């Protein structure tokens, strides 16, 4: 079936099958958070992006093969409600942005800086540090050698705009600046965007609106 990225809490995962990587997206919790299970097709090793909520749902998705790593995109509580239980059940290594780790109550094994890589199986993700929604938010870029890039943006980029900066002009300027420079400035229009809530998008769909976002201030 064709992947759409449209998922609902309590519903099934939607699976994006790439040549080297399988991406399973599921919605969990009262805030309709997205969690993404990434599976290397060559080795079956797995990594979870945001153990947001509903540990049972996530552990069922993970299955008997387990996971080696969990990456938390940022420190906001709706993105780590299931982290402690998932780590306890799987023994996974935890990753988070250096500036956000203190705000996550589960210890972070690996502090992530801009440009750091996270590998599992034969898959490599590159972290991009994006400031403004939180001090240490990270996006994860998978540069598919057989196609276009894929980026997991947490709450820093959505269809229709950047993440919430609570009407703080300085935070907004920093976030949109980072998103423009490190995401739109380095990745092509075909790049698929997987946000922390709601539906997916592409950079090509959003790029024409960057000036509009700057003008409106959110």
TrEMBL record:
<dbReference type="InterPro" id="IPR001279">
    <property type="entry name" value="Metallo-B-lactamas"/>
</dbReference>
<protein>
    <submittedName>
        <fullName>Zn-dependent hydrolase</fullName>
    </submittedName>
</protein>
<feature type="domain" description="Metallo-beta-lactamase">
    <location>
        <begin position="32"/>
        <end position="197"/>
    </location>
</feature>
<keyword id="KW-0378">Hydrolase</keyword>
<dbReference type="InterPro" id="IPR051453">
    <property type="entry name" value="MBL_Glyoxalase_II"/>
</dbReference>
<dbReference type="Pfam" id="PF00753">
    <property type="entry name" value="Lactamase_B"/>
</dbReference>
<dbReference type="GO" id="GO:0016787">
    <property type="term" value="F:hydrolase activity"/>
</dbReference>
<dbReference type="InterPro" id="IPR036866">
    <property type="entry name" value="RibonucZ/Hydroxyglut_hydro"/>
</dbReference>
């Amino acid at each position: 079936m064709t992947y759409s990225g449209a998922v609902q809490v309590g519903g099934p995962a939607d699976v994006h099958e790439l040549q080297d990587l399988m991406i399973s997206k599921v919605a969990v919790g009262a805030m309709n958070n997205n969690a993404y299970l990434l599976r290397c097709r060559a080795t079956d090793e797995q990594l979870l992006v945001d153990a947001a909520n509903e540990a049972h749902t996530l552990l069922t998705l993970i299955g008997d093969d387990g996971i080696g790593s969990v990456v938390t995109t940022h420190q906001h509580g709706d993105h780590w409600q299931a982290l402690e239980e998932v780590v306890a059940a799987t023994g996974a290594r935890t990753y988070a942005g250096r500036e956000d780790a203190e705000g996550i109550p589960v210890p972070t094994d690996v502090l992530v800086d801009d440009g750091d890589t996270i590998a599992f199986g034969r898959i490599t993700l590159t972290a991009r540090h994006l400031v403004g929604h939180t001090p240490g938010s990270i996006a994860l870029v998978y540069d598919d050698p057989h196609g276009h890039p894929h980026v997991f943006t947490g709450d820093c980029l959505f269809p229709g705009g950047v993440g919430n900066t609570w009407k703080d002009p300085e935070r907004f300027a920093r976030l949109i600046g980072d998103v423009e420079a490190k995401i739109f400035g380095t990745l092509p229009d075909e790049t698929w965007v997987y946000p922390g809530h709601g539906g997916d998008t592409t950079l090509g769909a959003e790029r024409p609106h960057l000036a509009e976002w700057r003008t409106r201030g959110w």
